[in-house]
Fold this sequence. Notes:
The chain has a single domain, classed as Farnesyl Diphosphate Synthase (Orthogonal Bundle). It is built from 7 helices and no strands. α2 (16-29) packs antiparallel against α3 and α5 (79-89) crosses α6.
Amino acid sequence: xxxxxxxxxxxxxxxxxxxxxxxxxxxxxxxxxxxxxxxxxxxxxxxxxxxxxxxxxxxxxxxxxxxxxxxxxxxxxxxxxxxxxxxxxxxxxxxxxxxxxxxxxxxxxxxxxxxxxxxxxxxxxxxxxxxxxx
Length: 134
């Protein structure tokens, strides 16, 4: 089971904290498992999960207060996906401010991408591109 998991999800392709849950379950099944260490790993995972849920709740509230879903109906609502992306970059707990900022920047980059992909005319996009380049 562990070998097939490792082959399917190589360590350089996974988010460390997401993999922790799977590794904990593997360790729990091990006969030589240290219960104190296992309990600490579970406590650490649950504490971080609560922290990430709070962060995501705050970012989601910020996104809803912007009301961009109503103002720009063509834009995709990708807040959770983009937060998860920033979690892959800044997974350590002390980087909560960096995760917050990166997620917000990615939200605006996503909106800009949606403008180019689905909304703007060629003329409007040329003007927007020129304005951004200046």
